[in-house]
Amino acid sequence: MKSILVAAILALVANAAFAHEYKAGSLEIKHPWARATPKGAAVAGGYMTIVNNGTTADRLVGFSSPVAGKFEIHEMKMDNGVMKMRPLANGIEIKPGQTVEFKPGSYHLMFMELKQPFEKGVRVKGALVFEKAGTVEVEYAVEAIGASPAVDHTQHMQQHQQHQQHQQQHKQ
Questions:
Q1: 42-46, 67-71, 77-81, 106-110: lowest mean pLDDT where?
Q2: By the 8 A CB rule, do 83 and 108 touch?
Q3: CATH among 3.40.50.970, 2.60.40.1890, 2.60.40.10, 2.160.10.10 for 23-147
Q4: How far apart are CA 32 and CA 81, in angstroms?
């Protein structure tokens, strides 16, 4: 019974530790992540979900990170049967009650002029800049090259829980 209780508590702690969500005023920034890059890559993409729980709109107007020299907010969409990517010079508005998902093939952050490769399992520090909420320090969890967040998030969480359980067993 004791080991079941310990395992349940560790699972809750692991979920809370891995989720890495941030708040800025009425905005929630959920699970910032990026894909690993091969050596020599000059660019990387950043992804997350932003939820506006407030009654007024806000706008993501920029971001920064010590690992890159240039940053842009991008949108990808189909135009006459061709997928096109373009920078959003004025950022992206998050309306009251709206959830905006930054994901591959859609809105995303472009880290350009990379100073180092993004390595799987490492966290990359950064700062999001909102028109009203201000600057929010975040960390991007670097997933595998070609990763999708749902699959890797679950797998990483399970590995983290197994590691915690293993450590706890050795303490007993």
A1: 77-81
A2: no
A3: 2.60.40.1890
A4: 30
